[in-house]
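note to self — DONT lose this again. spent like an hour looking for the file last time. sequence + predicted structure for the chain T wanted, 530 res
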Amino acid sequence: MQPQTHFEQTKHDNFAFLQDGLEELYAQAALAERYYFTDRQSSMAKIRLFVELACHELGKHFKLRPPVHGDLNNKIKMLQASGEVEEWVIEAMNTLRHDGNRSVHMTEVNGSYIAKMTVSRARMQQHMNSLYEIAHYLGQTILGTATQCAYTWQEPMSCELTSFVTDALKGSKEASFYLASSFYNELNEMSQQQGKTRWWHKEQYLDKQADLSYWLEKAHRQGHPQSWLLLAKCYSKKLLQEQATRDAKYCFKKALNNDEDGEAAYEFGLHLSVREESKLGEEYIAQAAQKGHHPALSYQLERAFNKHDAQQEWLDLALEHGLKEAYTVDAYCKLEQHQQAPNEQTIKALRSSLVAGQARRAPGIGFFKAYVALSIYAESDVEKVLTQMTDNYACVPSYLEVELRLFQQISVSTAHYDLMNDIYHRAISQTSNELEAAEINYAMVKHALSQASEKFKQRESVKTPKPIPTLLKEAADAGHAEAREFINSTQGKAVLKKIGFTSQGKMQKNAAEKEKNKRKRKLAKKAQRK
């Protein structure tokens, strides 16, 4: 007997960021998403309308003259000719326009007119991802929404679950597996919410667990090729109870027999790595990466750069398989090569890598684009480019050593003091000599003193990675000329004596407290003499 299927869930609104300011675009995106499961032709028509509205909004924002007009193809060409809109946006708009046109036109087949259009689910997912990325570009360009590291559209849970249930009960293994996957995702999300963030009750969790178990077992009996992997993941994450004859390792090994894209090898590798079989786990993850599995390639890239081993080998493979992160890494490598041996060939390679990364929306590519603009092309609008650098810094893969470059650029302004403080230790670790480290220490001293002069009035402390006198002394000892000159000044001597402010902890005690402590010391000395 099948369990009751629970339909309630917290709805994830992919396009909520458009609601305040671009309401009509939000409405069309929401409708495209609503029709995603039930009527893909209507969904494509809404996507096309979204693109057309987006053209007008961008034309208005950039004050294009004449205003965008004509058919959709012409409107996109006008945006492209303006040079204001990034090339990847133009390319994505044209792709959506092409399939969107098919959704609103009839075709003639053997003398009969047909108004029906068939779009595969995989193709629709690609289109929804493109729509989502364009929507975020509009949000950032027009509304000023924050930059994200990755833009991945989340497929919503279908409101028409009953149709999947009906198909599954009629014998559709795809419908059964879709239901199992949906409940797996829900249960996995619930299991990660603990403590104050937990919104669900134990009964709700058990209900979802029963749904997952029922539909997954049904898909497995129906012979769905991916059921072994989903069973393995459920057992590995303890979402379902392992059976005596069927545990996680057994299911993973079965899943490997049908592992074309490397997902089973990657998941098995992670499973082994956390169970003290790290060497074998690494081997499986490497196998997955060789098959082009993106998470595995990302894992291998991080490992290669952390261990400084086989970096180019894994980077080439990741680029071959179109891993977005790899284009960011490639820009980093090309920048390193140019700075080590600057010439026409290396600058050309660097420019090409930045263009490729920008076209593929590589995470953090804006950081390198801004850094090159400042350090190589001496961009005049410094604050604007620095903002681009700091906005994109969080998206740069953590294993790339960029903190020294970032520190050297943002240290020209006190506006970025908190970030300087946060990246100080990583920046110091990336210096190549004592004088380079001294530059960082002295920059921290200058900005900390500037901060202290303001905060002292409010009796607040200044956060620094080390006490200010220590930073100053280290810079001077390393031979930093300005630091040595400052130490010999009146202000520098006061800093070394820690007079007037504190760099960490509490402020200097007030006069009453000082007098009280002085009396205590005198009384203590008298007691010792007696």
